[in-house]
Amino acid sequence: MQNGKCKRGVGDVSGYTRAILAKHDPYSSLRSPSFLRLLLGLAVTTVAREGQMVIVGWQVYDMTRDPLSLGMIGLSEALPFIAIALFAGHLADRTSRKTLTVAGTFGLLLSAIALLVFTLRPELLAHGRVWPIYAVIFLSGIARSFTRPAIAALSADLVPREAYANAVTWRTSTWHFSAICGPALGGLLYGFSGAAAGYATVTVLMAIAMVALMLVKVEERATQREEMTIGESLRIGLGFVWRQSVIMAAMSLDLFSVLFGGAVALLPIFARMLGVGPQGLGVLRAAPAVGALLMGIIVAHLPPMRRAGRTLLVCVAVFGLTIIAFALSRNFFLSVFILTVGGMADNVSVIIRGTLIQTMTPQNLLGRVSAVNQIFIGSSNEIGAFESGVAARLMGTVPSVIFGGVMTLIVVAVTAWRAPQLRELREI
């Protein structure tokens, strides 16, 4: 801070910095018009992508009736994401983050168009041939590897440092609100109109998101001019994460808890077990996001957490318990409630981890560190989906999900024991 203004001076946000210093303002980051446009683009993209995943999951399982095929969807997206995310983070620190965000969204738009074409030409998917769908998901994973670290870093360019925690809270809440609408929309479209109508809607939404992101106004920061190879750049980012023991512990906790807690990938099977169709699947997919949204709104209106580390560990443990409870439930409404509670617990860890990264990371490293975080967390969702598919094939659906919940509880216990610096983390 300097003379009451944000030192980084990002256009339309400097006028309210002093106000958020005076008292806790739950809407501080929302007073930036460009941040609002970013949230709109994120929201519409998420609605489209989450709706698309419901359609893809039901379509593939309906063609194969094999739980491993659901895991292959996650693996198809995770492999390119893991391979490219670090390079994408390097670019986010050295080039225009807005350009990367728009370009990645355009890639997602092309993927939606490809899925629509395959569905309109059923001969391409005849006799249970699903590899074209896996190929499109693979390409969308490449696009997503550029958008996720770029959006996380770009949001820090649009608000002052004092509003980082608030921006993370609203960004995650926006994502989860959209993740409520997306699965519900996808399930309804598939159930009443078919896959083609669903993919057509996704295509339109991706186009709208691109327009919103193109309207974001950001004062581009000065990028690094010194000669540095990509390898050196990535080593700096990885080295920073490795040296920050609190960040490393928080990432590792979420990595393994999400890896073993991949019950969401098997929801098409549970939807059939509970006697509901694709519409019910959409509700089940949306339930965790409902809980996350509610928790995000609560956290936004509360002062900073005084025992952030212990809160993180407790919430991940609650998440693990909800996985076990969901596996044992045979009532649709009880299952929805359990998933909602799990979403509430999970969002607390997302907010704490995101705030730690944005407050402890230098601005010139934020893209690379965000990319490392996305590899730990973003890819673990898809790898967890693959693990769940393999475990369900070997152990059965219900035992595999119970196993995942138990492993999540073990991960929490080991982290609490081996990472006292995270356990004792106070206010952030």
Write a brief structural summary.
This protein has helices at residues 17-22, 33-64, 67-94, 97-120, 131-158, 164-193, 195-214, 230-243, 245-260, 267-273, 278-300, 308-328, 332-360, 366-395, 397-418, 420-423.
Walkthrough of the structure:
The chain has 428 residues and is an all-alpha fold. The protein has one domain (25-218, 228-423): Up-down Bundle (Growth Hormone, Chain: A). 78% of the residues lie in helices and 0% in strands. It has 16 helices and no strands. The longest helix has 32 residues, at 33-64. It starts with 16 loop residues before the first helix and ends in a 5-residue tail after the last helix. The model is unreliable at 1-22 (pLDDT under 50).
> CATH superfamily membership, which one?
MFS general substrate transporter like domains
Distance between the termini: 18 Å
Q: CATH architecture, please?
A: Up-down Bundle
Number of strands: 0
CATH topology: Growth Hormone, Chain: A
Protein structure class:
mainly alpha
| Rg (C-alpha, Å) | 21 Å
Unreliable sequence segments: 1-22
Share of helix among residues? over 70%
Describe the sheet with the most strands: none
Order of helices and strands: HHHHHHHHHHHHHHHH
